[in-house]
Design brief:
elongated
Length: 184
């Protein structure tokens, strides 16, 4: 009889403990914590417009700067070195473009999750002109307020995020102006 009383009280305390523990449901506290702590390569969670722009633009600028230096070197080098530089440029673009594309797709999925949309919408990139739709959506449309079915609301951008955003805008504009100025 005492054994039954103990096991019944243990059941009651374990039920109470389970009620306060994170729930395994998709919109429960466990998923909200994991989505806010998701890493850069994680497909879980949501990110806002500023973080999306920063995460996609900064690596793109770095890869394009490397490509521009190699391209300039291949144009100005001696003919024997130009062929080697052109080969290096092609190989480096292939090596850098694959992870950059995967990373941009992951960040795009998380950005679309912020708008309570599926990441599969990025398949529109494969259709000429229709690919502008997800670009406009990810860049200009605000995410849903509060938590949605795909995760917790992302934290607002920090002052460092905003500073990086405006710095990247300036670099993109400067790169476009330099490109136009260098074009004959």
């Amino acid at each position: 009889m005492t054994t039954e009383t103990v096991s019944t009280s243990e059941l009651q305390t374990s039920d109470t403990d389970n009620a306060s523990s994170p729930s395994p449901l998709p919109n429960g506290p466990a998923s909200l914590e994991s989505s806010s702590k998701a890493g850069l390569w994680s497909t879980k969670g949501r990110i806002g417009r500023v973080r999306y722009f920063n995460r996609v633009t900064l690596p793109s600028l770095i890869v394009n700067a490397i490509s521009a230096v190699l391209f300039y070197y291949s144009l100005t080098a001696a003919p024997a070195a130009a062929e080697t530089a052109a080969t290096t440029l092609t190989i480096s673009q292939l090596i850098l473009a694959i992870p950059l594309t995967i990373f941009a797709l992951i960040q795009g999925k998380r950005r679309l999750n912020d708008q309570n949309r599926s990441g599969w919408l990025q398949l529109l990139f494969l259709i000429p002109l229709a690919g502008l739709v997800p670009v406009i959506m990810m860049t200009f449309i605000r995410g849903t307020e509060g938590d949605n079915r795909l995760g917790a609301q992302p934290a607002p951008p920090t002052s460092n995020d905003k500073t990086l955003f405006w710095t990247l805008i300036g670099l993109v504009v400067a790169a476009c102006v330099a490109l136009v100025a260098l074009t004959p």
